[in-house]
Amino acid sequence: MPPVSKRIALLTLLLMLWSALAFAVHHHSSQDESSACQVCIAAHSASPASSAPAPKPVFRRVVRFRPPPVAAKQYLIAFALYVRPPPAV
After folding, report:
1. Are 43 and 26 in contact (CB under 8 A)?
2. Residues 6 or more apart from 1 whose CB is under 8 A from it?
3. What are the boundaries of each domain within the chain?
């Protein structure tokens, strides 16, 4: 990774850890303060329900492609092109 990407990743990780620590040690001296605190309200709010229906899977047959058969002579020609001759003495 380039040095800039590493610094951005490190900064993101530190911000995430800092916010988790701040949320964990967050407290109020009275109940009245916690009722107006945005962090407490967000922590105790319910997550929104998904309004989109789940997609239904569609099963279809997949046709496999089979290459045409190759003659043995074609294999020999290709093999001859890739074989290195013995070294000259």
Report:
1. no
2. 9
3. 1-44
Please count the CA atoms within 13 angstroms of the CA of 74 that sit on its side-chain side.
4
Tokens standing for 45?
């709010």
Tokens representing 4 are 């800039």
**Backbone angles phi and psi of 53, in degrees to 5:** -70, 155
The whole-angstrom separation of Cα 73 and Cα 89 is: 31
Amino acid occupying residue 52: A
Q: What is the pLDDT of residues 4-49, one digit of tens each?
A: 999 999 999 999 999 888 878 888 887 777 778 887 777 777 666 6
